[in-house]
Amino acid sequence: MTELNLYHKSEDLYRMLTMSPNTVRWAIENIDDYREKINLHELVIRDDQYLSKKQDRDSIFMKCEWALETSGNERIDEFVKEQIWNVLDNNILQSIHEAIYQGFSVTEIIWDKNNIKSLKALPQKAFNFKDGKLYIYDGQMNKYYEIPENKTMISYAPIKVNYMPVGLSEILAPIICLKYSAFFKDWPHFNEFVAMPMLWGYYHNEETKKALNKALASLGRASIGTMPMGSDIKFIEASNNNPEAFDRIIKVCDQSISKTVVGQTLTTESTGSGSYAQAKVQNSVREDFQSLSIDLVCDTINRDLIKPLVNFNFSDRVYPTFSLKVPTLLEEKATRDKMLYDIGVRFTPQYFIENYGLPEDHFTIQERSSNPFENLNSEVKKKTQYFS
User: Fold this and answer.
1) Are the C-beta atoms of residues 83 and 317 closer than 8 Å to each other?
2) Same domain, 160 and 86
3) How far apart are CA 142 and CA 303, in angstroms?
4) What is the number of other CB atoms lying within 10 angstroms of the CB of residue 241?
5) pLDDT tens string for the chain (388 positions)?
6) Cβ–Cβ under 8 Å, residues 293 and 277
7) Closest to 247 measured CA to CA, from 187, 158, 288
8) pTM
């Protein structure tokens, strides 16, 4: 019988493939241990496209202007503003926003009597779900502990499956797993077998066989083989020896990542001329995705930070509202509305209240002959100057 020995070193060369279809499936289907989904995030975040798009989406907090919309009680407004302006920063806003990617996030509120001393982002692995509720989790003792009331800010991903939050990392894990398989496994193997010749050696006896194996291995190729002298082996070439198929797989995966994280694919699809014009239409992060992220962070702060702060210090149960405004979006909206006004569209006071955050007593709608946008910028500045 003819003896054939193959030596594969692919496991040594591609150890970066730490994520397999089995690990992805196990994490997605496991409903008893949410930490498996957190482990999945630690793997997919190493993907360059995902990390880049995540940074784009997180960067919106660097651009936002902070504002505190009045509760109607100036004393409460000033107290809350002083308290939260001392402890909030962009790192805290981004840590709250991690719920979008990992399913949930927890930020500890460190109190000094009835005042806020500091805020601290806590690791997701310190928590776990049981019967759809989040608990502090001791993995060694397998014990669940109630989260103390008014001690944390907790945010959840807006996407739910069976009442459990689903982060973008879990959604994108199969796509990134496919991309990694093409990038680090299938494509390199294709190159070894199609683009580069394999190394084969023929031996006469066991002594030459051992020397031949050692010599071939020292040449550093992943695919080498030895066989007895007189044996024959045929290599059947693939019908398609063009590596573009792998390139397409990777591009499709990158486009899916971009669409899921920031809502656009400009950086992966646009080529050649016209990219600036496309950029004017497709912002780095789509406006509705920005609004979703901003609303998640603001709702968490208003519910879990401002409300208990007021309850601890005042008998009046009125609450100012923390908000984040993206200046570029506000300017673009004002420019658009001015164009609509110029062609005959007329707006109501309620429209200005809802779209520009202006209190009703800060503006009036003038006669048609005048332009209500002439004083819009000054009113916006007046509002933000008071609360910023």
Assistant:
1) no
2) yes
3) 30
4) 10
5) 344 444 444 444 444 457 788 888 988 998 888 999 999 998 899 899 999 999 999 999 988 889 999 999 999 999 999 999 999 999 999 999 999 999 999 999 999 999 999 999 999 999 999 999 999 999 889 999 999 999 999 999 999 998 899 999 999 999 998 888 777 666 566 655 555 566 667 777 777 777 777 776 776 655 666 666 755 555 555 555 666 777 888 899 999 999 999 987 654 455 444 444 444 444 567 888 899 999 999 999 999 999 999 999 999 999 999 999 887 667 778 888 888 888 988 888 888 777 777 777 777 776 555 555 555 555 555 554 544 4
6) no
7) 187
8) 0.70
Both 167 and 197 in one domain: the answer is no
SS (H, E, C) the chain: CCCCEEEECHHHHCCCCCCCHHHHHHHHHCCCCCHHHHHHHHHHCCCHHHHHHHHHHHCHHHHCEEEEECCCCHHHHHHHHHHHHHHCCHHHHHHHHCHHHHCEEEEEEEEECCEEEEEEEECHHHEEEECCEEEEEECCCCEEECCCCCCEEEEECCCEECCEECCHHHHHHHHHHHHHHHHHHHHHHHHHHHHCCCEEEEECCHHHHHHHHHHHHHCCCCEEEEEECCCCCCCCCCCCCCCHHHHHHHHHHHHHHHHHHCCCCHHHHCCCCCHHHHHHHCCCCCHHHHHHHHHHHHHHHHHHHHHHHHHHHCCCCCCCEEEEECHHHHHHHHHHHHHHHHCCCCCCHHHHHHHHCCCHHHCCCCCCCCCCCCCHHHHHHHHHHHHC
Q: Which residue, 290, 309, 325, sits at the end of a domain?
A: 325
Q: Domain tally for the chain? A: 3
Give the structural domain span for 252: 5-14+172-263
CA 308, 312, 317: angle at the middle one, nearest 5?
70
Please report whether residue 199 resides in a domain.
yes
Picking from 62, 110, 63, 59, the residue whose alpha carbon sits closest to that of residue 328 is 63
